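Quick one: structure for this chain?
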Amino acid sequence: MDDRFVESILAEYASRPPGENIGILAPRSIHRDTGVPLHSWPLKNGELQATQTSGSMIPLSVFEREGGFIEDLFIDMVDFEFSLRLRRRGYKIVECPNALSFHSPGAPKSHNLCGKLTFTSSNYGPARRYYIHRNTIWIVKTYGKYYPGFSAALLSTRVRDSSKSCLLRRVAFKR
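Got it. Here's what it folds into:
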């Protein structure tokens, strides 16, 4: 987080119209190593479809009315579920562009395959991948009919990530 993180997120909250139904005010997530903004799942109206809740401001009244996180999801997708649940109940998820949060999800690694194909892959272990995929399926089954575009994008992300992982393991086994 940057030095003015808390100040920035509080200023953004104070600048919103009175009575606006804010469920989550999220920082802008930046890749710790590259400085590139991480995918934020934006909507056309400037709000977010879903967000990581790390570093986010969530009004206490939201937790009191809507409940907390679903603990059974454990580590992955718990924040996306919370985001989608709040959106279904009419809350807005807003990104605060001046509050920066730095992440390095999955410890990404660059690969050069046969000198021609360069790509990055996440570096999660098998147990973490299990939870990511299990919880993605749960999210899609639970919210897919309400958010088909988001669900398709989420599944596409998982398929791409898994394909890269399988490709890298296949190449490693041939060596």
